[in-house]
Amino acid sequence: MKAVQYREIGKGPEVVDIDEPHAGPGQVRLKVTAAGLCHSDWFVMDLPEDQYTYGLPLTLGHEGAGVVDELGEGVEGVEMGAAYAIYGPWGCGRCHACAQGAENYCPYAAEMGITPPGLGSPGAMAEYVIVDDPRHLAPLGDLDPVETVSLTDAGLTPYHAIVAAKEKLYPGATAVVIGVGGLGHVGVQILRAITQATVIAVDLGEDKLALAREVGAHHTVTSDEHAAERIKELTNGLGATAVFDFVGVQPTIDLARAVAGMDSFIHIVGIGGGILPAGFFSTPMGAAVRAPYWGTRSELIEVLDLARSGAVGVHVERYGFDGAVEAYGKLHKGEVRGRAVVVP
Ligand code: NAD
Ligand code: ZN
Question: Per the database record, which ranges form the Alcohol dehydrogenase-like N-terminal domain (predicted)?
Answer without folding.
Answer: 24-140
